[in-house]
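Hi there, hope your week has been kind to you so far. It would help a lot if you went through both lines with me. No rush at all, and the record is pasted right below:

***
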Amino acid sequence: MSSLKSYSANDLFNYISKKEDLLVLDVRNEEDFGRFNVEGPFSIKMANVPYFDFMEEEDISVAKVSREKPIKVVCAKEGSAQYVGEILVSHGFEDVAFLEGGIKTWGNLLMPKRINLESDDYALYQFIRPGKASCNYGLIYQGEMVIFDPSRNYDFYRSFADRHQVKIVRTFETHLQADYISGSKQIANQTGAEIMAHIGDFSNASFQYNEVHDGESFEMGGNGPVVKVMHSPGHTPGSTSYIIDDKYFISGDTIFIQSVGRPDLGGKAKEWAAMLYDTLTNKVQNLDKNLDVLPGHFMNWTEANNQLVFSEKLENIVGHNSSIYALDSLGKFTEFIMNNMRESPAVYDEIRKVNNGWLDVDMDEAEVMDLGKNECAATAYAKVKKEESS
């Protein structure tokens, strides 16, 4: 009889990236599975057979699981997946493994991708978070690293920095995040790194940070890559983008490859829509169209290139989203925003409080708050759903 094995979230991403023929068996309840499950760059075979079904109707539940593929069992915290995995092995399944640490490890997973050329004297990385459909970034030069919009996976950044023999010296926030808990405070506490952020979002923050201002620049190492600050309000009043080496445009949630940031998360849709329209019209569209845009989120994996990196020329983004950028009045743009609003997840208000330092949560509560895909883009999705339900 074969034995039960285990695998990591990193292993799972690699299985999916290599298009391995497998079955992901999620044994959480249907509601949790429907809210958040494993998604990767390529389609995978999935099944949802709750853990309690295996407890109550073992033979019937086992019969629902295909024997044709290796089985990768997923649950909330690990124990239930291990339990189900042992049942499957006892029924003669030959290749069964459970996810170490449960679904939260998938939710926190970061996959580093080098963006710029190996021959450059600095290194720019995209840290892709598949479980949140988000991206954050690391810039390395002469023993130092700065991170843009870090997640709360401090262990990843620490090991990444150690592996590259660098010290984390700064974090840059593009805005007050609502969809995930920022790692800047923990990184600052652990490493002494400075937190850089715009007062438009962080004026009431309970922790120390250094203000960034529109038009100023930061040069790494005195003669390294230059990080230029561009205040780009709209998604939030303090939204800020960063241009690196006049080549890379870290846009935060201001613009995405397939949309723009939604300006209604603060409950002031019309006011913030006016700011976003001005940013798109008078700032973004006046930038060098050859800039490589590096967004804070992606809608789906079709946006990634052949190297599974989320990056696109600004010229192409404006072209892809011509229906948005061609709106020639604030009234039309505001109408677009109002037509595409959808309900903001209730947890976003709590996450904002955590990220401003107003609310402390323990690790388990943070894990629950942080799970789930982002809802930060203004798209036509909400309008379609309204029409379907009417």
User: Anything to note?
Assistant: Confidence is low (pLDDT under 50) at residues 380-390.
